[in-house]
TrEMBL record:
<dbReference type="InterPro" id="IPR041739">
    <property type="entry name" value="G5K_ProB"/>
</dbReference>
<protein>
    <recommendedName>
        <fullName>Glutamate 5-kinase</fullName>
        <ecNumber>2.7.2.11</ecNumber>
    </recommendedName>
</protein>
<dbReference type="InterPro" id="IPR011529">
    <property type="entry name" value="Glu_5kinase"/>
</dbReference>
<keyword id="KW-0418">Kinase</keyword>
<comment type="function">
    <text>Catalyzes the transfer of a phosphate group to glutamate to form L-glutamate 5-phosphate.</text>
</comment>
<keyword id="KW-0547">Nucleotide-binding</keyword>
<dbReference type="InterPro" id="IPR036393">
    <property type="entry name" value="AceGlu_kinase-like_sf"/>
</dbReference>
<feature type="binding site">
    <location>
        <position position="12"/>
    </location>
    <ligand>
        <name>ATP</name>
    </ligand>
</feature>
<dbReference type="InterPro" id="IPR005715">
    <property type="entry name" value="Glu_5kinase/COase_Synthase"/>
</dbReference>
<dbReference type="GO" id="GO:0055129">
    <property type="term" value="P:L-proline biosynthetic process"/>
</dbReference>
<feature type="binding site">
    <location>
        <begin position="211"/>
        <end position="217"/>
    </location>
    <ligand>
        <name>ATP</name>
    </ligand>
</feature>
<comment type="pathway">
    <text>Amino-acid biosynthesis; L-proline biosynthesis; L-glutamate 5-semialdehyde from L-glutamate: step 1/2.</text>
</comment>
<dbReference type="GO" id="GO:0005524">
    <property type="term" value="F:ATP binding"/>
</dbReference>
<dbReference type="Pfam" id="PF00696">
    <property type="entry name" value="AA_kinase"/>
</dbReference>
<feature type="binding site">
    <location>
        <position position="138"/>
    </location>
    <ligand>
        <name>substrate</name>
    </ligand>
</feature>
<comment type="similarity">
    <text>Belongs to the glutamate 5-kinase family.</text>
</comment>
<feature type="binding site">
    <location>
        <position position="51"/>
    </location>
    <ligand>
        <name>substrate</name>
    </ligand>
</feature>
Length: 258
């Protein structure tokens, strides 16, 4: 089964967006995302890559070392993932949207048969109006929770699925200039084709809940760009962030193809 005529968007939602910077998954944010997808569903099909499993678990349990060790993080992800999916399912169902779960790891993108299986499964899901919600399979792979690269997983997914657009929702208005951060009056780089110059603007810092930082988002955009896919880095904390970006009514970073 192939792609439909609709524009395919791969939407990556980071932990910071899902928790709105708190210690809990925000039902309000998930509802906001559902509302936007429902509004756009005649013209766009969505595949979501969502972090938040570990954050979801921390709402319910307090494991040894509070999740600092990698194997404890893996256990937390295992506990939190079904909770995360339940919250998505409940909120999306309210708006008549169907959801499904796909757990992937990097090594799946290195095997031809696995790649075919991913594409075939997701195409059947999308064709039947299910919204696939992807996360790393944290039980078998530790790449993302070690390096915070759900961004890279999302980029590989966008490339594999031939997405028309890759949107990364984070907690800033896209990529800020280094100078503006230093001067405490942040300024967004609205348009860029030049990955290397963007990398120079980005400090290798991470915010309180996410693990990847802006650097991994630029790396993800580079993977997409090499496959001729545009990346938008938008502020997912704002209501209607997808609609506003599509209407060009928001301050965000567009990384276009060269
Ligand atoms: N130049 C920059 N512009 C914007 N954010 C930056 C920049 N350099 C570093 N960052 C950091 O990257 C963070 C976003 O990445 P991350 O914490 O991994 O979020 P997420 O959970 O959305 O993946 C920002 O909150 C900010 O602290
Ligand atoms: N698989 C982990 C992903 C952690 C992660 O990469 O977080 P983020 O930097 O917010 O995308 C989880 O769901 O908690």
């Amino acid at each position: 089964m192939d792609k439909s005529d609709k524009k395919r968007i791969v939407l990556k939602i980071g932990t910071n967006v899902l928790t709105k910077g708190t210690n809990n998954i925000s039902r309000g944010k998930i509802e906001d995302i559902a509302q936007q997808i429902a509004f756009l569903k005649d013209d766009y099909e969505f595949v979501i890559v969502s972090s938040g499993a570990i954050a979801a678990a921390k709402q319910f349990v307090n494991l040894e070392s509070n999740g600092k060790e990698i194997n404890v993080k893996q256990a937390l992800a295992s506990i939190g993932q079904p909770h995360l999916m339940r919250i998505f399912q409940e909120n999306f169902r309210e708006l008549g949207l169907l959801t499904s779960q796909c757990l992937l790891s990097y090594s799946d993108f290195e095997k031809e048969q696995s790649k075919k299986n991913i594409v075939n499964t997701i195409n059947v899901l999308v064709k039947n109006s299910y919204i696939p919600i992807i996360n790393e399979n944290d039980t078998v792979a530790t790449d993302e929770i070690k390096f915070g690269d759900n961004d890279k997983l999302a980029a590989l997914t966008a490339v594999l699925l031939g997405a028309d657009l890759f949107i990364i929702a984070t907690n800033t208005n896209g990529v800020y200039t280094k100078k503006s951060i230093a001067e405490n009056k942040v300024e967004t780089i609205n348009n860029s084709t030049n990955i290397n110059s963007l990398k120079k603007e980005v400090e290798k810092s991470i915010s309180s809940h996410g693990t990847g930082g802006m650097f991994s988002k630029i790396n993800a955009a580079e993977i997409a760009q090499e496959a001729m896919i545009e990346t938008w880095i938008v502020n997912g904390l704002n209501d209607n962030f997808i609609l506003d970006a599509i209407k060009n009514n928001a301050n965000f970073t567009k990384i276009t193809i060269q």
